[in-house]
Amino acid sequence: MKTYNLKRTAGPDLGSLIAEVKDHVSIEQVVDVLDLKPKLGLQLIGTSLQGDCPTGHASANHRCFSIDTEDGLFNCFHCAEAGDAVDLVALVNHTGRFDATRWIAEHLAPELLPKFDQAMAAQSDEQKALHERGILYRLIFEEGHRQLMQPVAAPVLDYLMNERGYDLALIPQTEWIYWDTDANIRAYLEQQVPHMSAQIADLDLQGAFGDNFHLALPYRDRHGVIVGFLKRAHAKAGFAIKGTPDVRWDSTKGLKKADIFGLNRIRKEEELIVVEGYPDAAYLPVAGIRNVVAFGQAAFSEKYVEGLRVKGVKRLILALDNDGGTGEKNSDEICRLFAGTDIRVFVLDPPLMGTEKDPDDYVKAHGVAAFNALVAKAETASVWMSKRILSKYDLNADLGREKAIAEALEYGDSLDNPREAASVLDSLSGSLNLNDDLLAEEYKKLQERKATERLNEGIKDAARQAQRIIVEGEPEKAVTALQATMADLQTEYWRAKEPEQVKLDDFLAAKKNRDAERNAGDRIGFALQDFAEIDRELLGLQSGLYIIAADPNIGKTALMVSLMIDVLNSNADASCLFYSMDDSRDMIVNRLLAHLADMRINDVRFKMADDRQKQLLENAYQLLTRWFQEGRIDIREGSDFLTMSRINSEIRRHDNREKLVVFIDGLYNVPLETAHDSIRVENIERANQVKQLVRSFKVPVIATAEFRKQGREESAQAKKERTLHDIMETGKYGYNADLAILLSPKDVEAYREQDEPIIVADFSKNKLESFRGSMEFKFIRAKSVMMLVAGSKQNQ
Fold first, then answer.
1. Which residue, 189, 240, 185, is CA-closest to 212?
2. Which residues of 519-603 form beta strands (DSSP E)?
3. How would residue 98 be classed by pLDDT, with cut points 50, 70 and 90?
4. β-strand 249-251 against 315-318: which pairing, if any?
């Protein structure tokens, strides 16, 4: 998924400034200066002014918006906008809190302005310049907005009404302004803020075409700060300037469009309508369609994505110009840009607007309701793009079909949303009458090829990065960085090679058929002969996360080894991976040999004098060797640089993954690829990752965990029962477990002296089957063998 991180410099500290402004000014004064009483139909009812909301949404009784004149707060009961006087100015003027606070000071408390200058003095030169320019731009906007309805602006007003068809009553609600000559604008600024003469002199108001334009729109960033002006010719075809015909647009010099036009108006909107024309985005909000933004005639910038995310936007509806090709081309480019993001895109096919050129024209000709009905027909990007790709080729020709399929599959692979990727395949299958299975197989091959390409490029980049770090004299840091990067690359690579999740209807059909063939009580998982009681109660060793928890030296590893041997002996087609994070491979093999040869662990490590014992040990070695050569067993130890990611990869690549059982002895010691702030957070992540192994591969994963150390009072209560909450560091292991077995000595006081103590296994959690209770095992210490005591099962 693409991410975009835009650098944003910090603004001045507002805390004390806002407090002082609110102490000097009442919210009712702000309402009067903003002239909101007539605009919103505000009426005084008790101590509250009530009327329409300045955001412009419909209100049946025209009383949804309330301003409490005593508390100095406002609230809209319809859209939940709320706040103080500063928030009200920010809402009405579509600006940020700093500019809103300064606006109040300028209009109602000018004595506080020096404090704003002091706050700005603490900022960087770049930040001060931005804010000073913002102040001047705001003054230009306010005066130009006032002049728009004056006689001097008659030519541009005539253009807006007669050429663009705007309702005269709505024009003052837009942000269109009259753009005066450069000299007149500077003279006005000198009159308003004479102390900013130097800043006014530095202001470059001319664009590429001089003083020819007298109609303009402010361009604001996402916070509402004006960063420059867009200038529009007040003639439909534009002007002929300096030998250039049909010049329609200009702008103030150096205008940087870091945010999409109109984003500052968006508040609590998850869905936006994207248009091309700035005039559309200026007029449609006051006409009744509030969630409109525009990107203009340039390409849709990647920088806009970050601003959309900050605003919480989840869906974009593209309603681009119906101009015979440009709208479709731009829609195509935007669909591809957002393919790898978490923002979903829908497309209103431009030809659906009929004879109207753009959304602006459509609304003026047919009304807001008709346009909303049209927007409701927008298709997902995947459906629209599939049609567009297919329309580009001659599908009656083999070459055309081949190119169409290749491009469509490439687009499908770029989509982050699996539903939309599947939609591309469905479109191809339906339009070209292709076999679904063959198409899916071809798509899978493309994904694997792309994954391999990404892996190769990632390896090269990681190697270059590691080499730079080595040159800087930090080889250990290079190894760590390389390991983390390689783990991420490996995970991404294998994820692409994993089969897609079966569709729900296919899953339901397969499950129904499978379950219909199974008799009540039939085994579901791997058979266990030595642990027959567990086999009966669990219906075999099913897929799931099994946590075996106990204090040290209670027999966790012995139980793991005994279970593994039982699985291998009882299931001819089963394989086992044993990860030992506490003991060496040598020690685990000693346990296996002792178990298989029925000998003491200490004896298997030395030369045998007795021929019978020698043969038993030889048989055990041969059996382990054969199991390994057949791919049925492997034993790994922590010194092999095992990590959760590496374990994941080894399971994923195992030749017998469908019949695999995984044992992790010492789960809490498995390293993670990324550092965490605390052991507790690390264990939570480790527990989540081991649970994901089960979900991804649908295999039994049996892991051991330690109990936390008891306090003095708990130690004094020797018979105090352990619970899931006693698992070391975090209860997340127990929470994620499908089955949890807590081991404890039956006779705590005599345990240390017993050669073959009885261990109580408490099945404290069981999501696999209905059994809740305990069983007893005999722990034969010398042979590291755990045996089920027949008939010891007790139900709770």
1. 240
2. 544-550, 575-580
3. confident
4. unpaired
Q: pLDDT digit string (tens) for 68-96? A: 887 788 888 877 778 888 888 888 887 77
Whether the pLDDT of residue 254 is over 70: the answer is yes
Asked whether the predicted pLDDT for residue 645 surpasses 70, the reply is yes
**At residue 733, does pLDDT exceed 70?**
yes
What average pLDDT does this structure show over 12-38? 80
686 by DSSP, 3-state: which?
A: helix
Strand blocks (E) in 666-770:
700-706, 739-745, 758-766
- Tens of pLDDT, residue by residue over 345-386, are 999 999 999 999 999 999 999 999 999 999 999 999 999 999
In this structure, the answer to whether residues 364 and 288 fall within a common structural domain is yes
Which of 315, 343, 377 finishes a domain?
A: 377
Is residue 40 within 8 Å of 54, Cβ to Cβ? yes
Phi and psi at residue 469, in whole multiples of 5°? -70, -35
Q: What pLDDT does residue 14 have? A: 56
Q: How far is CA 611 from the centre of its chain?
A: 65
Counting the structural domains of the chain, the total is 4
- Read off the CATH number of the domain in which 582 is found: 3.40.50.300
List 271's β-bridge partners, or say none.
315
Q: Are residues 57 and 111 in the same domain?
A: yes
Same domain, 682 and 614: yes
465 by Cβ neighbours in 10 Å (0-12 / 13-18 / 19+) ranks as: middle
- Residue 377 tokens read as 């027909």
If asked whether residues 638 and 771 sit together in one domain, one would say: yes
Burial letters for 273-298: b for 16+ Cβ neighbours within 10 Å, e otherwise?
A: bbbbbbbbbbbbbbbbbbbbbbbbee
**DSSP label of 211:** G
Tokens linked to 242:
């300096």
DSSP string for 243-301: TEEEE-EEE-TT----S-BTGGG--S-SEEEEES-HHHHHHHHHHT--SEEE-TTSPPP
| CA neighbor of 90 nearest in space, from 73, 71, 103 | 103
Co-location of 644 and 573 in the same domain: yes
Q: Domain residues for 73?
A: 12-123
**Where is pLDDT greater, at 190 or 12?**
190
CA–CA distance, 794 with 796 (Å, rounded to integer): 7
Question: What does the buried/exposed string (b/e) look like for 222-251 if buried means 16 or more CB atoms within 10 Å of the residue's CB?
Answer: bbbbbbbbbbbbbeeebbebeeeeebebbb
Q: Where are the beta strands (DSSP E) in 339-456?
A: 344-347, 379-380
Asked if pLDDT for residue 586 goes beyond 70, the answer is yes
Same-domain status, 581 and 723: yes
439/575 same-domain check: no
CATH of residue 325's domain is 3.40.1360.10
Instruction: Tell me what pLDDT residue 2 has.
Output: 37
How many angstroms separate the CA atoms of 495 and 501, rounded?
12
Q: Containing H/E element for 403? A: helix 398-414
Place of tokens 């085994």: 523
Same domain (yes/no): 329, 460: no
